[in-house]
Amino acid sequence: MNELALRAEIIATAVRMNERRINSGRSGNVSARTETGFLITPTGLPYESMQPEDIVAVTFAGAATGPRAPSSEWRFHRDIYVDRPDAGAIVHAHSSFATTLACLGRGIPAFHYMIAIAGGKDIRCAPYATFGTQELSDGALVALSGRRACLLANHGMIAVSVSLDAALALAIEVEALAEQYWRSLQIGEPNLLSDAEMDVVLEKFRSYGQRER
Ligand SMILES: [Zn+2]
């Protein structure tokens, strides 16, 4: 995909993120890897009025070029691309149910086998740190270790995948799981799947051939 098409796809993904109600307003952000760094939504512009030239190119060293400033959250996008060769695109959203759990400092345990879609036996919640800081980024990387998604305490969620479509689909799935877990907690304590069962599920997900791709 050429860079202009990728810029347009980032905008389309950001618009769809709000249409699918996993984000509202301008609080989330979307990025995709390039050869020299990544492209990311700018700070402060409504997604609907963004033009391809508004998308900001940032190098792996963190240098931004273009007329707009990158999202204030560019740092964790950069650190994820540097740390994770498997990361092709990142969706960050303040989705309601994932954020609700994150405000309690709660991740999502193996209450449903689909938790494996995020790559492991749970979805962790990174500790709170001020948005845009290195501390937030460092915590997110730890929470994402061996995973494709995490929650951010008192903030939101991150979904990492090979493509923009896959990252958005994962973010939607994580939000659905967060809602189901939240609803389960309203009427009791959900039965959690065992480690052994989650090993079976994770192996099945692997052998189905990277269903996200
Ligand atoms: Zn945020």
Strand order of the largest sheet: 4-3-2-1-5-8-7-6
How many β-strand runs? 8
Indicate the proportion of strand residues: 15-25%
Counted by DSSP, the helix tally is 6
What is the string of SSEs from the N terminus onward? Answer: HEEEEHEHEHEEHH
Helix- and strand-based class? alpha+beta
- Tell me the Rg in angstroms: 17 Å
Distance between the termini: 16 Å
The hetero molecules present are: zinc ion
Q: Using the alpha-carbon principal axes, give the shape.
A: globular
Task: Report on the biggest sheet.
Answer: 8 strands, mixed
Q: Considering DSSP H and I runs of 4 or more, what fraction of the residues is helical?
A: 25-40%
pLDDT averaged residue by residue: 95
Q: Pick out the low-confidence regions.
A: none
Describe the overall structure.
The structure is a single chain. The chain is an alpha+beta fold and 213 residues long. It is built from 6 helices and 8 strands. It has an 8-stranded mixed β-sheet with strand order 4-3-2-1-5-8-7-6, sandwiched between helices. A hairpin with a 3-residue loop joins β1 (29-33) and β2. α1 (3-19) runs parallel beside α5 (164-187), α2 packs across α4 and α3 (96-103) packs across α5. The radius of gyration is 17 Å and the shape is globular. The model has no long low-confidence stretch (mean pLDDT 95). Zinc ion binds next to loops.
